[in-house]
Design a protein that fits this description.
The protein is α/β, with parallel strands linked by helices. The chain is built from six helices and seven strands. The strands form two sheets. It has a five-stranded mixed β-sheet, sandwiched between helices.
Length: 195
């Protein structure tokens, strides 16, 4: 596949299901070099009761999760949009992936909530600076529901489009983030870590 830019991007939420996958879908359609991940210990999806979530291991294919929910209560999981979301996910990649298990290096990591941002920063700190390769970590808080995931994906897509146009990302990124913040009325977190 030929990409629109050499910029390597990771989009991360907690379970690699909704927010990161919606952004992955948008960026993939625009031909950006993107991967998506979760940072949680398990993949968690809402169940039929608030105290009974559906819990899966990272690496279990989206198709198997789809079939499990389809068997449990097809009408309920169709109505709440989970089957549609899983159908989209399985067309993009095989299974939810955990960021902490990935060996690949990225130039930009975008997280979808502050807790996930903290987990990514902490993970990279514990890994240690081995190769002295910078990575920009940016957080955009996105509420974990379908409508907000779509809005968030538009914002992430706009941000990545601007970042990809930069000829000197390290020196221009703060101005780019400020410009996108102004257009979206959102406040981003940003830091530089090293691989």
């Amino acid at each position: 596949m030929s990409y629109i830019s050499d910029l390597s991007i990771a989009v991360i939420c907690s379970s690699n299901m909704n927010r990161s996958m919606e952004a992955h879908h948008f960026l993939n359609k625009k031909k950006f070099k993107v991967r998506s991940f979760g940072t949680g210990d398990k993949v968690k999806l809402p169940g039929t009761a608030i105290d009974k979530p559906n819990v899966y291991e990272f690496g279990l294919p989206y198709s198997e999760i789809y079939e499990d929910l389809n068997k449990k209560d097809k009408a309920y999981y169709t109505q709440n949009g989970l089957l549609h979301m899983l159908d989209r996910n399985r067309r993009l990649k095989l299974a939810p992936e955990r960021f902490q298990n990935c060996q690949e290096r990225f130039e930009v990591i975008i997280t979808c909530e502050e807790r996930v941002y903290d987990q990514v920063v902490e993970f990279l700190e514990t890994k240690g600076n081995v190769a002295n390769i910078p990575v920009h970590i940016i957080n955009i808080d996105i509420t974990d529901n379908h409508d907000e995931a779509v809005k968030g994906a538009f914002i992430i897509s706009d941000l990545v489009t601007q970042l990809a146009k930069s000829s000197d990302l390290d020196n221009e990124i703060d101005d780019i983030i400020a410009m996108v913040e102004e257009h979206t009325d959102k406040n981003f977190l940003h830091c530089i870590m090293f691989y």
